[in-house]
Amino acid sequence: MKTLAMTLCVLATWSLAAAEIPEGTWVKREGGVRMTMTVERSAGATRITYRMLGADGKPMNNMVMVVVTQLDGKESPVLLNGKPSAETMAIRQVDSHHTATVLKMDGKLFGTSKAELSTDGKTLTVENDISFAAYNQQVGKTTEHWDRR
């Protein structure tokens, strides 16, 4: 269970490097771990909630990850099922359509992520570069696409 939780946590953080994502729900397009991402803004902060989906396409209640960020490049803790995980993200908004994220696990840098919001605001493309395989995630460069629901 810990490996699955950490894998979910890592996968979700890669996708978090979201530019000015419109509020609402986004769905990860590619195979592998199926997820949704819900974006909410309040009091100057951006709250992003990830839910892992089961085989039936419904959210799994025991796999919810949340991060609250100011998009200012400072580290933010990642919560898994309401409890702190060993992961942090430092998300910096570059401009209205781009962000850059630094990912750490137990204080150690394990990757970076860059995101670009399409001009029509309907697709988010995320490029991840993971440097070491803590918790069985894929090492190297990957690309994800998220569609606005």
Structure, explained:
There is one protein chain. The protein is mainly β. It has a single domain (2-148), classed as Lipocalin (Beta Barrel), CATH 2.40.128. Helix content is 10%, strand content 60%. The protein has 1 helix and 10 strands, in the order H-E-E-E-E-E-E-E-E-E-E. It has one helix at 2-16, and strands at residues 24-28, 35-42, 45-53, 59-69, 72-80, 83-95, 98-105, 108-117, 123-130, 140-148. Strands 1-2-3-4-5-6-7-8-9-10 form a 10-stranded antiparallel barrel. A hairpin with a 2-residue loop joins strand 4 and strand 5. The longest helix is centred in the first third of the chain and has 15 residues, at 2-16.
Radius of gyration: 14 Å
Indicate the multimeric state: single chain
**Are there runs of 5+ residues with pLDDT below 50, and where?**
1-18
Helix percentage range: 10-25%
Biggest sheet, spatial arrangement of strands: 1-2-3-4-5-6-7-8-9-10
Q: Whole-number average pLDDT?
A: 83
- Principal-axes geometry comes out as globular
Total strand segments:
10
Task: Return the CATH topology.
Answer: Lipocalin
The CATH superfamily is known as Calycin beta-barrel core domain
Biggest sheet record: 10 strands, antiparallel, barrel
What is the H-and-E element order? HEEEEEEEEEE
Compute the separation of the termini in Å. 29 Å
CATH architecture level-2 label? Beta Barrel
- The DSSP helix count reads 1
In the CATH scheme, the class would be Mainly Beta
Strand content: over 45%
Structural class: mainly beta
Q: How many domains comprise the coordinates?
A: 1
